[in-house]
Amino acid sequence: MNPSEADQRRAKVLAAAIDQRLLDVDDSPVAAFLDWQQVADNLQHLHRAFPADIPVLHAFAAKANSMVGVLERLRRLGMGAEVASDGELRAALEAGHTPERMVFDSPAKSRRELQHALTLGIAINVDNFQEFARVAELRRAAPSVSPVGFRLNPQVGAGSISAMSTASAHSKFGVPLADPGMRERLIQAYLDHPWLNRAHVHVGSQGCPLPLIGQGIGVLVDFADEVNARAGRAQIDTLDIGGGLPVDFDTDQPIAHFDDYVAALREAAPRLFCGDYALVTEFGRSILAKQGWIAAYVEYTKEVGGRRIAITHAGAQVATRTVFMPDAWPLRIATFDASGAPKPARPAAVQDVAGPCCFAGDLVAQGRELPLLEPGDLIALLDTGAYYFSTPFHYNALPLPAVHGVEFDPATGLPGFDTLRAAEIDDLVHDRA
Length: 433
Ligand SMILES: *Cc1c(COP(=O)(O)O)cnc(C)c1O
Fold this sequence. Notes:
Elements: H1 5-19, E1 30-35, H2 36-49, E2 56-61, H3 68-76, E3 80-83, H4 86-94, E4 102-104, H5 111-120, E5 123-126, H6 129-141, E6 148-153, E7 175-176, H7 182-192, E8 196-200, H8 210-231, E9 238-240, H9 258-268, E10 278-281, H10 285-288, E11 292-304, E12 307-312, H11 320-324, E13 333-336, E14 348-354, E15 363-371, E16 378-381, E17 402-408, E18 415-421, H12 425-430
Parallel strand pairs: 1-17, 2-3, 2-10, 3-4, 4-5, 5-6, 6-7, 6-8, 8-9, 9-10, 12-14
Antiparallel strand pairs: 1-11, 11-12, 11-16, 13-16, 14-15, 17-18
Helix pairs in contact: 5-6, 7-8, 8-9
């Protein structure tokens, strides 16, 4: 079997990275790559999928990848930023995002964070009535241009990964719209506070099917229509429909299903696109997951109890979710030899692929049939551009690996690199100095 086009593209990146010592068995045994061409292609599909005659702000969910260089590139590609902590907020500002193209979410916004967002004029999605009381108080103390709305929990049910589902009956997020008396209480809050001009839902991440997302957004539109009807004017002028478009972790297709998403919304919530509302989206995973990957050297291999194990330099520190929830977050693994060339399919073996962390569960794949791995080979953990290398786990004081943006030169077909994050080793030991 010939290596796929995608493997050949990755092989070119690996060969160049080895050549430039961005990957080195001893000095940098793990590194991550983000393919900018694929990101740009994906974003073109995103922008085209939505109707051109409706104002839409696509605010990238910074938690999916909050590196400043990434947020900066996404800004230049036309995205805003959705932030959910002071750290993400600072990263977005440093990346040049402007307050009117940002959204502040978080279920635990502190008074200081709220004040900061209100001072800058960043839109706020209020999670609950206690937070709302704070926002109202802060606004009385100092005027603010921040658009403000409530996050609704449409309580339409959970997807296939319960930890990722935010619209279940008992989710910690938002105001539970279907609970007794809640809808009326919320509508009254809008009627009493004319500055409440937005509303928001985010039904969940990976594992929520499009009809479920559509249903939740349908609840949002109905709510906004009802508020506006009772207010007798277009009080709510912007709907923030969240993110959560699932990506497929099984193929090399880098373009997310934005067209299917919009089609599902037209079906489930036709009034969303009627022109009464400007829109905000908050996609994260579907923007970057498929465009990034992690490469790591195989340090050793062994046979244990009849099982073959490859011990590599990528484990829980860069693939935390996969290691702790392997059934919910399986990753494809591509294999390469020490020169970066794709490994031939044979000989193959059923193998465990382990990481460097000192706990037994540090496995990124178990019982997986793969080309037989040898010391000095490279593995690639695919579809890890969001929530993986950018969201590390400091176990064993393992450093964050370097992250490199990749750009192919159209003339030579060869990849060039821009370092988005250097490997972290020096910082790691500062607090002990
Ligand atoms: C996590 C999150 C997102 C992004 O979800 P993806 O699945 O990465 O698209 C958007 N909005 C909110 C409020 C979130 O918590």
